[in-house]
Write a structure and sequence with these properties.
heterodimer; A: about 180 residues; mainly alpha; about 0% strand; disordered N terminus; B: mainly alpha; globular
Chain lengths: ~180, ~190
């Protein structure tokens, strides 16, 4: 969105801003959304506040991890190169940390503490899955029709082998004709 | 599971690509489970769930972290790299494409409506994963309590994840210890 004369300074700032957010993004990109908003909108003016909100919605709907919102923001800041660099900066630092932890955990495959911990964490994770469903439902379901679509999709995808893409497509069409 | 012939790197890239392009708006965990646990058997349900919690606690997108976990388990560092590449490559291109379109026409209401319908269905998909993995805890009161506590703390009371886990994981481990002692066979 900025029309400043091409400067490598912006690209450099993109790398530092998003790689810092990467390390901070404990629990996924959604936890750093407020901080990201501050940096991108208030500090650097790469996009406006309403553009930020739209980018968030698009990244939720698009395939892939929702942290790819950074590709949209980077593009808004500095075009293709900005989008690409923002994505790489957001992925790499956290990925290196995760790789390290993964090796430690996987080397303990046969150990007793890991088996016990693994068993104990499983039901907690189930609770967290329901928690995030509940939070998304707040964002996604604005009407009883939305709730109905959510309930129907949950039932179909639990009880049948219907391909989720078909369910998504039908829901998208329902939205398009203004039913939601 | 993965002894003998190792999983080819292109299979890893392909399956993670399949996960990412099939998932819209938050259905990623559900898709990952389907591919990793049901279709390929790379992890069992219990390891999948515990891996998912590790992925949530660590910085980074849960799905990218899961790709690193599975890739590293099957094929070491290259496996991790290839899995992440497979997961992100097409979505990044699509997202950049959407960025081009969006920054050109960002006032289109019909687009908003389609996205609304899909978001509602994506929520249902996320729920279905909870039902599929959680069903077996219905008859285990302690496990059910742990799940309920996690749901309330995180979903309803919005407590920070690290706080929730630092309380619940030790309790879960105690329960896990008891279960392991009780039935060495299960």
């Amino acid at each position: 969105m900025t029309d400043e004369p091409a400067n490598d300074h912006t690209l450099f700032r993109i790398i530092t801003v998003f790689s810092t957010l990467s390390v901070l993004s404990i629990g996924g990109a959604n936890t750093v959304i407020p901080e990201m908003h501050r940096e991108v909108v208030s500090v650097h003016h790469w996009v406006t506040g309403s553009q930020f909100a739209d980018c968030f919605a698009i990244s939720q709907a698009a395939p892939g991890p929702s942290m790819l919102i950074v590709a949209l923001l980077g593009y808004g800041a500095k075009g293709w190169l900005g989008g690409l660099l923002a994505t790489i900066a957001m992925i790499v630092p956290a990925a290196l940390l995760m790789y390290f932890i993964t090796r430690v955990w996987q080397n303990a495959e046969e150990s007793r503490w890991r088996i016990i911990l693994q068993r104990g964490m499983a039901p907690i994770t189930v609770g967290l899955v329901f928690a995030s469903s509940y939070l998304i439902a707040h964002e996604a379901d604005h009407s009883w029709k939305g709730v109905l679509i959510t309930a129907a999709a949950a039932w179909i995808l639990t009880a049948t082998k219907v391909n989720p893409l078909i369910v998504m497509t039908i829901a998208g069409i329902l939205g398009a004709v203004g039913w939601v | 599971m993965n002894n003998g012939s190792p999983v080819p790197l292109r299979t890893l890239a392909w399956e993670f690509n399949r996960i990412s392009i099939s998932s819209f708006g938050g259905g990623l965990s559900a898709w990952s489970r389907k591919v990793i646990v049901e279709d390929r058997g790379w992890l069992n349900d219990e390891e999948f769930l515990s891996a998912l919690t590790i992925c949530r606690v660590m910085p980074g997108a849960n799905q990218i972290n899961l790709a690193i976990y599975v890739g590293a388990k099957l094929r070491g560092p290259w496996g991790a790299f290839i899995a992440v590449f497979g997961l992100c490559c097409i979505p990044v291109l699509i997202t950049l494409g959407l960025a081009v379109v969006y920054f050109k026409y960002h006032h289109e209401p019909s687009l908003q409506r389609v996205l609304q319908g899909m978001a509602a269905a994506a929520t249902g998909m996320s729920l279905s994963m909870g039902f599929k993995t959680g069903g077996r805890y219905l008859h285990q009161p302690i496990a059910l309590t742990l799940a309920l506590a996690a749901f309330l703390a995180s979903g309803v009371f919005h407590l920070p994840l690290l706080l929730v886990l630092s309380i619940l994981v030790p309790l879960g481990a105690l329960w896990g210890l008891r279960e392991t002692e009780k039935g060495k066979t299960s």
